[in-house]
Design a protein that fits this description.
Rossmann fold, 254 residues, 13% strand, 10 helices, two-stranded antiparallel sheet, alpha/beta, elongated, five-stranded parallel β-sheet, 2 domains, 7 strands
Length: 254
């Protein structure tokens, strides 16, 4: 029920869903007064959600800001949250990453520069049907290929979402270490919800955000004036995260 409700809310709040519904409604309603208003509304929504400057500004407001390596400090554990592999590609003799690949590559960087001594990858499968592939196991395999020793990487491949990751990681590390010796690694847009989830189970950690949608301000005219598919993608990501945060709050996870 919780999963279905959050997915429904996200679908209804997507920019393209709102634009299409407003446009379709302009043909369905019989009121001559509302027809032009709905069509104008759909156009305004399209211009708003496709404006890259506004999308980047909103991302900058929400995302946990980047942290220079010299300010990171040293930690016993790097807690890497999964959610970046693609299982629907082939051939199956390699691992495919989404645009969130920074989560993996920056974790390698943190290890090789001595900021983390060990890595715990958290995440099973979020698929409802045939959840055979475990993301944590795939990411560990990739980390080893990238030069991280097998003995350094542990996995937690049971959890299906961020709340369950927090529960499993806290249970796994209790008695071995303390939260202040752990560094949380995930995408910048996902970091606020992730930190809230871990704090709610008594395992608050410092953040090392990766995979940013925000960027340095660009005042060129095309950023302001030309519609951008990337802007719509940013809004989709942010709205999905906000819906997730609300759903987690209602469920008592944050």
């Amino acid at each position: 029920m919780f999963f279905a409700l959050s997915k429904t809310l996200y679908f209804l709040a997507q920019p393209l869903t709102l634009i299409i519904l407003a446009f379709i409604a302009s043909f369905v309603v019989k009121s001559a007064r509302w027809k032009p208003r709905l069509r104008l509304g759909s156009l305004i929504l399209l211009l708003f959600f496709s404006n890259e400057f506004l999308a980047r500004e909103m991302a900058q407001w929400w995302e946990t800001p980047p942290q220079p390596l010299h300010e990171v400090g040293n930690y016993e554990w790097g807690i890497l949250l999964s959610g970046v592999t693609k299982s629907d590609f082939g051939p199956a003799d390699r691992i495919y990453l989404s645009r969130g690949a920074d989560r993996v590559t920056h974790t390698v960087l943190l290890y090789k520069t001595g900021h983390v001594k060990k890595i715990l990858v958290s995440g099973g499968s979020s698929e409802l049907i045939n959840p055979t592939k475990k993301e944590a196991d795939e990411i560990k395999e990739l980390l080893v290929v990238l030069g991280v020793p097998d003995s350094v990487v542990q996995t937690e491949n049971i959890s299906r979402n961020t709340h369950e990751s927090a529960v499993e990681v806290a249970e796994r590390l209790t008695g071995q270490t303390t939260p202040d010796r752990c560094l949380l690694i995930t995408s910048a847009f996902h970091m606020p919800r992730s930190q809230a989830c871990f704090a709610s189970v008594g395992w608050p950690m410092k953040a090392f955000p990766t995979h940013f949608y925000s960027a340095r301000r660009n005042s060129s005219p095309d950023v302001w004036l030309l519609p951008s598919l990337e802007a719509i993608n940013i809004w989709n990501t942010l709205i999905r995260e906000w819906v997730g945060m609300i759903a987690y709050w209602l469920a008592g996870y944050v």
